[in-house]
């Protein structure tokens, strides 16, 4: 069966590996002139690493990724700390918690696919439209070229053209929140900034997440800020250090040190979309951000796309003679979980940007209550414990 994947991002490439592993003839069509990712990090939580490890990528993931020792919470102005999560040797989720430079993770998936199926990726192929005739899907690209496949997967991200071709324009809503993201060279910052574990700085109208990538040579910095004057949702929008600093007036000196040393600060508007009622029509389906884009507060966007790829490959392989049924089974296995993660992620906003955090005592009380170990475990165990390889597929 020939499967065409539209989009060569993290979701598309990992799905290609999962499908190739099950014996499908898979091809990836990417709009860009080369496969690449902006300079920023991505956290592979245990559920995501479990999915990727099942694709026979253990050596590559462990070589390239950085295993986080744990996460610590900091109060925004005093830098008072609390434990958030013990990982590394104390990780209780049954699979590693790894952090990556996005380009490294994408590069690792790209190399693995190139090795296993040379020539599987076609560049400069921007999806335009699709039509389904009998058991064939015909795809046309913006350059006028056409291909046919037995099945098409739209892994073309938040602004998915494949999703539009199936279900029309989506309803997107700005949250009033934007993100700063970028990388800080480790040698530019003080030794009292943790370069082995992750940190989460909580403030009344913003919060910051940092974690090491490239084995601690770089620190990935993401800050989510309540601000309604930036509404562009896209990876490549650059801001300036001066503008970023304005959002952290009054914050601890270590925050200033990190912000001042971000190599290129990128800006990203946080937008929410309602979950889709359906992901598939006939022999075309969706995967990753194309069908369940999420706010980044639980770091699950890419992780969910890895799970999608593994479950989709399993469903198609189990129902080879009935691909449309396989797509329904894939959706049923994935919709409830991804919707729950998207909803929980949206709810995090009140927890991480909370007026109680303005004052020291109330702020620490808020942190002690919300990040008490039992509560943290309840919030995260069902996410990190999921196994895309064994989750039930019901007919
Ligand atoms: C601030 C921030 C931090 C994040 N941190 C994390 C994290 O730590 N962990 C995590 O799991 N997730 C994180 N995410 C989310 C994660 O980045 C996305 O969920 C993930 O990249 C989705 O993968 P995807 O393959 O579905 O889409 P994308 O990565 O967007 O890839 C889509 C691909 O399709 C291509 N494409 C688009 N249109 C077309 C077309 N018409 N034709 C052909 N190709 C096309 C694009 O060029 C791109 O290569 C974060 C997001 C943000 C905003």
Structure, explained:
The chain is α/β, with parallel strands linked by helices and 395 residues long. It has one domain: FAD/NAD(P)-binding domain. Helices cover 35% and strands 26% of the residues. The protein has helices spanning 10-21, 46-53, 58-64, 102-116, 161-167, 241-246, 253-260, 289-292, 301-318, 323-352, 360-370, 373-384; strands at residues 2-6, 25-29, 41-44, 66-67, 70-75, 81-86, 98-101, 121-122, 127-133, 136-141, 146-149, 151-154, 172-185, 198-202, 206-213, 218-226, 266-273, 284-286. Strands 6-5-14-15-16-13-17 form a seven-stranded mixed β-sheet. Strands 8-2-1-12-18 form a five-stranded parallel β-sheet, with helices on both faces. Helix 1 packs parallel to helix 4 (102-116), helix 1 packs parallel to helix 9 and helix 9 runs antiparallel to helix 10. The longest helix has 30 residues, at 323-352. The radius of gyration is 21 Å and the shape is globular. The protein starts with a strand and ends in an 11-residue tail after the last helix. The mean pLDDT is 95. Flavin-adenine dinucleotide (FAD) binds at residues 6-12, 29-32, 42-43, 125-127, 155-157, 161, 179, 181, 222, 268, 288-290, 296, 299-303, 305.
